């Protein structure tokens, strides 16, 4: 008897992005940022536009949040909030250089008529939260250790009414959850174990025995900072090893080049917030 693997199914998504019109590396707040390395602003914008076109070409809707003066990291739109059921759990940034980004995101959700939860603790939005709608009735994986405070996880659980699993990040190179772990579909994840504490590694192995486990090379290539619709996986072009693993697992890798935006410590996912109605 021949067993045929179920075909991966894509699902239309809605995203929020912000163009890198003010992007530069003016300060260093993560290990990837080097203020002495110049940014090619024109190339950064072209790469961002290609990412946006890639997502719309896959059939997804992309809203654009206008860039604002004095906020060079605003291109990393995933950090501004985390959404579930048309409710935005707002961000409160760790570093003052990014604090005003939260106001721009709050205004966007108000304009769209979404409920908005004002944060009381430091958290950096979808940078440290991942959602799996089908896992255990709707599960939130939440990172802490560098940017988001662990106490924010319980606030998110109360505000969004979904179980939250706290995961401790221990490697400063992987300062946000979204550079160490990603949802591939509504119940499946990929992650790099070395980014997490020993206890968190055990939790992930228990909850997700069928996860696609990435290695350090995959993670350092920003491969886990990806966006997936359940079939098409948009990821950094440098992450060739992870792309091969994804293809073997039945996903369709869609590589994009984001060399300039990597200089700020982010790649595909950092630039893309998912809007979950």
Automatic annotation (TrEMBL):
- Give the signal peptide range: none
Single GO term (MF): dimethylargininase activity
Provide the active-site residues from the annotation.
176, 270
SUPFAM superfamilies named in the record? Pentein (SSF55909)
For this UniProt record, the keywords arranged alphabetically read as follows:
Hydrolase
Biological process (GO), any one: arginine metabolic process
The chain's coiled-coil residues are none
Membrane spanning segments where?
none
Asked if the keyword Hydrolase belongs to this entry, the reply reads yes
Q: Carries keyword Ubl conjugation?
A: no
User: Would you identify the family this protein belongs to, as annotated?
Assistant: Belongs to the DDAH family.
Q: What is this protein called?
A: N-Dimethylarginine dimethylaminohydrolase
């Amino acid at each position: 008897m021949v067993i045929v693997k179920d075909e991966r199914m894509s699902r239309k998504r809605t995203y929020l992005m912000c163009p890198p019109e003010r992007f530069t590396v003016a300060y260093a707040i993560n290990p990837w940022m080097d203020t002495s390395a110049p940014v090619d602003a024109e190339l950064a914008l072209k790469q961002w536009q290609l990412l946006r076109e890639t997502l719309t070409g896959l059939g997804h809707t992309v809203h654009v949040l206008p860039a604002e003066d004095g906020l060079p990291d605003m291109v990393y739109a995933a950090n501004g909030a985390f959404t579930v059921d048309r409710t935005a759990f707002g961000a409160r940034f760790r570093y003052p250089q990014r604090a005003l980004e939260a106001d721009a995101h709050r205004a966007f959700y108000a304009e769209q008529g979404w409920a908005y939860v004002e944060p009381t603790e430091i958290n950096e939005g979808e940078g440290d939260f991942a959602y799996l709608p089908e896992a255990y009735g709707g599960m939130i994986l939440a990172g802490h250790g560098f940017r988001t405070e662990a106490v924010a996880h319980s606030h998110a659980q109360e505000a969004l009414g979904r179980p939250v699993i706290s995961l401790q990040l221990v490697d400063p190179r992987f300062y946000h959850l979204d550079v160490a772990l990603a949802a591939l579909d509504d119940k499946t994840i990929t992650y790099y174990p070395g980014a997490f504490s020993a206890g968190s590694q055990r939790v992930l192995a228990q909850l997700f025995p069928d996860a696609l486990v990435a290695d350090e090379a995959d993670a350092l290539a920003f491969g886990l900072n990806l966006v997936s619709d359940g079939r098409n996986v948009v990821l950094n072009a440098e992450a060739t090893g992870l792309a091969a693993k994804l293809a073997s697992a039945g996903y369709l890798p869609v590589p994009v080049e984001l060399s300039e935006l990597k200089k700020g410590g982010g790649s595909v996912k950092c630039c893309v917030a998912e809007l979950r109605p």
